[in-house]
Amino acid sequence: MPDHRPYRVNVAGDRVHDHAVQATQAVQRPSSRGRHPVSTRYSPGSPDSSGFAPQGRYVLPSFVERTTYGVKEMNPYNKLFEERIIFLGVQIDDASANDVMAQLITLESIDPDRDISIYINSPGGSVTAMAAIYDTMQFVKPDIQTVCIGEAASAAAWLLAAGTPGKRAALPNARILIHQPATQGGRGTGSDLEIQAREILRIRERMEQILAEHTGRPIDEVSRDIERDKFLTAADAKEYGLIDDVFTSIKRR
Q: Which segments carry the region annotation Disordered (predicted)?
């Protein structure tokens, strides 16, 4: 029978039903916030660490899956969630951090004894949002497997390193970037600027401690390494202690 549900036409001229568009918008929504006071030098609409400005995306496909309970409509993110995989493929801000934290806590409540995987392809973002995800990763009971697919830059690199020891990995052509946090410029009186300066130094010190803890590197070495941008290949990241393995094929858990 012909499908009479409301639809839209995407850039390729294909019919896309409204429910699929709504699902896509819920999964991949632009951030409603501006740049954070302390971030890792990335903002929506600006070039990412590879020099390319983010572009619009295609409509996320949906598919029908038949189960013993009937037929249900799925999209790739739903399917990944069923497999206990969280995909962090956007800038790290308050919205994406809340999504990741909600999934971590939900998956723990479903089964506290099964591993959770976080696949990362992110240019980084807010340090405070990263810290919220980091604390939740340490808070939940399941082991957290982290896998870098593409890029884990800035704040995302800290999350990659924060996975359970022995369960952190990257694909062969992945790239990891570590550097110190940056401000977006301060406003206010001299006293206000002094307070802001002390805060960013405190944040940097804490980030150094976290990276040293998860890599086994001395804090003074980490401090020197993040003074300027430090790019690492997957093999370099393994040697540095950010990850434990370089995957060339899917590792079944």
A: 23-54
Per domain, the residue ranges of the chain are 75-253
Structural contact between residues 81 and 99, judged by C-beta atoms closer than 8 angstroms: no
37 alpha-carbon distance from chain centroid: 19
Closest by CA to 42, choosing from 93, 94, 99, is 93
**SS3 letters across the chain:** CCCCCCEEECCCCCEEEHHHHHHHHHHCCCCCCCCCCEECCCCCCCCCCCCCCCCCCCCCCCEEEEECCEEEEECHHHHHHHCCEEEECCCECHHHHHHHHHHHHHHHHHCCCCCEEEEEEECCEEHHHHHHHHHHHHHCCCCEEEEEEEEEECHHHHHHHCCCCCCEEECCCCEEEECCCEECCCCCCHHHHHHHHHHHHHHHHHHHHHHHHHHCCCHHHHHHHCCCCEEEEHHHHHHHCCCCEECCCCCCC
Which residues are part of the catalytic machinery?
Answer: 154, 179
Tokens representing 71 are: 């037929």
CA distance linking residue 175 with residue 232, whole number of Å: 6
The model scores a pTM over 0.90: no
Task: Say which CATH topology domain 75-253 has.
Answer: 2-enoyl-CoA Hydratase; Chain A, domain 1 (3.90.226)
pLDDT digits (tens, 9 = 90+) for 75-107: 888 889 999 999 999 999 999 999 999 999 999
Amino acid at 67: T
* Spatial separation of the C-alpha atoms in residues 233 and 76, rounded to whole Å: 28
- For 173-217, how does the pLDDT look when each residue is reduced to its tens digit (9 = 90+)? 999 999 999 876 667 788 888 888 899 999 999 999 999 999 999
